[in-house]
Amino acid sequence: MRQLIAGTWKMHGLSREAEAIATPLREAGILGRDLLVCPPATQIAAVARILAGSAVAVGGQDCHYATHGAHTGDISAPMLRDAGATHVIVGHSERRQDHHETDDQIRGKAMAAIAAGLTPIVCVGETGIEREEGREFGVVGRQLAGSLPDGFAGVVAYEPVWAIGTGRTATEGDVADMHAFIYGELVRRFGAAGEGILILYGGSVRPANAAALLAVPHVGGALVGGASLKAEDFLAIARAA
Q1: Domains located in the chain, CATH noted
Q2: Is 159 designated active site?
Q3: What pTM value is reported for the model?
Q4: Annotated catalytic, 12?
Q5: 184-238 pLDDT, tens per residue?
């Protein structure tokens, strides 16, 4: 199965910066894995134009569960599709924490994405306190159960919140244990279809640790944050797959 290397630029990227990151990716013919970049909403259309005809797809960082309406400041899945996106991230740990998004809301967003023809990347993951209390599998299990709609046909991303920007690092054993758990939950709920759902790892992936992390069983790719803001680092991670 081809691995997916997805980069989320988060709240970074004015027009000139977006062009500088995206342009070197245009010629990236990396075989054996798929590449995706998720710029801020203001840059999706421009980045999609730059990458048109290349092997790199473009996605959004969030969407609303409604297709349209009085939702000032939000963006719908059809709007993302219209701007050139093929994927959208929903339930990112920063959305869950900063905007207090619930599993029900995230499930609605995933359903909206699928209805609009987008591939949703649904994020799950535990905080440091939850892990210290031994609740990591219970937390992630509840997030999977609540955030994934029936008949889910998308991607799951595991983010150990405690290992993102904290200086702490998840070991390969930590990653293997959680990805095996997530895989088991997907197969239990979705049967044979669950075997084909990619599970990305999203905990401070860098060129230096990418090869080891991407070789862990049931790791179907990476959700890259800061390292995706430099084309050379993002491509180095992709080449390590």
Answers
A1: 3-240 (3.20.20.70)
A2: yes
A3: 0.96
A4: no
A5: 999 999 999 999 999 999 988 999 999 999 999 999 999 999 999 999 999 999 9
